[in-house]
Sequence to fold (464 residues):
Amino acid sequence: MRQDELTEIRALPLFRNMEAENFDRLFRGAYVQTFPQGVELAREGEMADFFHVVLDGSVELFANWNGRKSTLATIHPLSTFILAATIKNGPYLMSAQTLEKSRMILLPSTDVRAHFAADSGFARAIVLELAQCYRVVVKSHKDIKLRTSPERLANYLLRQSATAADPSSFDLKMEKKRLASFLGMTPENLSRSIKALNTHGVEIALNNVRIVDFNLLRDYAKPDDLIDNPTI
Amino acid sequence: MRQDELTEIRALPLFRNMEAENFDRLFRGAYVQTFPQGVELAREGEMADFFHVVLDGSVELFANWNGRKSTLATIHPLSTFILAATIKNGPYLMSAQTLEKSRMILLPSTDVRAHFAADSGFARAIVLELAQCYRVVVKSHKDIKLRTSPERLANYLLRQSATAADPSSFDLKMEKKRLASFLGMTPENLSRSIKALNTHGVEIALNNVRIVDFNLLRDYAKPDDLIDNPTI
DNA sequence: CGTGGCCTTGAATGTATTCAACGGGGGTGG
DNA sequence: CCACCCCCGTTGAATACATTCAAGGCCACG
Fold:
């Protein structure tokens, strides 16, 4: 691993408060690797050999059952995935694959567990990360149990809008097929939900989203911090 | 707090590896309290003042949005709830109420955070608990996104069966209304799902569940460790 | 003996999925 | 350069699934 990479990684919240000596030892066994699009990084059911930190690109977390597939989350820099499996030394509950060319850190799970036990600064950072992951899933769970499909889409668009350079015009960050799965509906149904939002202040053409009437959209979507605010 | 209670609590995985001095200090500010049925212990959106450990009874975690309500989880002894909110010093994402007369420990959130930072044994136990909570929610999320209503019911019954004294005959542990909400359907729909399972080896009369043909039920339910096994 | 909550059932409605068909864009290979 | 094909996205129609509304039975409780 290059020195400038190490410096960059050392500044991450997850490693910032680690003892210098522990950091050095942990990263002797680490890899920083760049994967092309479509690489399977983890398969559900297998043991968690590596803990992953996404530095660039994006990763899809998904699960299969009985021939069906569902996208459960998308991981962007600088976030991590499958921390819980690493900590518990258990099997992955989700599969992971790169959505684009992506660069990430791979830390052997045994090393992570060892340092987690020995370094309280690291342990604290891990807990914060894990608590964050937990709350993200809980919000997703509330989203899907309390809202209909078009309501989920409407709130998704408002969340995307909040992070976009231009809140009233931005592009969808993933193909619609995947977005549909993430939002818990079929691609056909996403198309219909998109049309349905025309009457609520949204116009979507190809991948471009234009919010023409925020008040109208918010009236319909009823966004709620306890579901939609990613920072709390 | 009584001495025998303290001894019992000290043996819990969460506190077992805590420094004796820290344990004593933490529990100077703690309460052990017994609540009647139906008491609201937390309301979503409020700040997490207390971390809760359920010693006896059971607690429902639920959430509201736009006039709708959904049961997200039921907590049994000896488990905890709203740990993530405590750690992050954020608002509760879920409300909590006792389902029956229940006894639990209440630990002021500020004390938990302080000891978590200072006591690495405690920090490690918290991480394991948090990782467990995370995996429970992920499983629920997979359950609801990948399965239909009767499939969710069928797998729920198999999970209950696995913990029952008699696997082929046991009682439902909550009222059907609440079970329906937990499983992500209406009470009416639960009634119909129950009837539908008659053709898959299950007979439910009032609260009593009799599994008359396990192979038939398993063929239909297709239980999966990565969704249904609570121990991994 | 009434009353209210829970559960069930039926019917009507609403929502979502499936199946089928079609058009457009991007890539491949002729 | 063009023809072709495949995948994605859209649309319509049929079906399946789920919710709502209404009604009635049962039990627990006052």
User: Anything to note?
Assistant: Residues 120-146 of chain A form the longest helix (27 residues). DSSP finds eleven helices and eleven strands in chain A.
